[in-house]
Amino acid sequence: MILRRPGNIRPGNFSIAKREKVEERHIPDKERASGGAGGADPSDLQLISAANNGDARAMEAIYFRYRDWVFAQAMRIVSNHEDASDVLQEVFLYFFRKFPGLVLNCQVKTFLYPVVRNLALNRRQKRTAAPLGDRADEIAARPDSDPAGQRADMAGLLDSLSDEHREVVLLRFADGLSFDEIAQALSIPLGTVKSRLHNALTQLRGRLSR
User: Most buried residue among 76, 131, 168, 174 by CB atoms closer than 10 A?
Assistant: First the structure.
């Protein structure tokens, strides 16, 4: 997916081009994520402020800074590249429509995660409800085993957890969110986050000790 940056940067005209080749300047992803060449990378708050003031490069930098993370979160839920790509597009369209005027009182990841989660769950629900014939090719194309044994074993362990337990484990250890950030992202009490994580780790220890 490629970000298309038009001359007019009004959020309604700020779009993400999907499944098509779009001519773009050759800028390394690292430079895109920093909003330009040279100097220290701007903070998220600096980029948000610049985007609120109509800076298209700041919006582009936010996209390239978080696109891989958003895609990874979507893949955890939908397990389908096409659906995850659609979620990625929908998330950033939603995000960019918040400009100008976005006031961010948390990390960008904390702000975006509920959006990713809701859109991805909707996608998964629609795909699950689809007739088997519509999904036959996808199912047949899945490999029977993962050649990376340890990685497959870990994925299997995580898959053995409920959705809510797996979610807090990944947000805590894969994404490095604090307990408070997880609580905010999931809109649940802090105590619930700690309880879910404790229960998830207890289950994983039990399975590893078998």
Answer: 168
- Architecture label for domain 147-210: Orthogonal Bundle (1.10)
CB 11 within 8 A of CB 98: yes
Cα atoms in the 13 Å half-sphere on the side-chain side of 75: 10
pLDDT tens-digit readout, 34-80: 555 445 788 999 999 999 999 999 999 999 999 999 999 999 889 88
Fold matches, 1-132 and 147-210: no
Here the tokens at position 162 are 């409920």
Measured between alpha carbons, how far is 180 from 193 in angstroms, rounded to an integer?
8
pTM equals 0.64
pLDDT of residue 155: 67
One DSSP character per residue, 24-76 reads -----HHHHHHTSSSSSPPPHHHHHHHHHTT-HHHHHHHHHHHHHHHHHHHHH
Q: Where are the domains of the chain?
A: 1-132, 147-210
Residue 61 near residue 47, CB atoms below 8 Å: yes
Token duo for residue 154: 């870990």
SS (H, E, C) 63-87: HHHHHHHHHHHHHHHHCCHHHHHHH
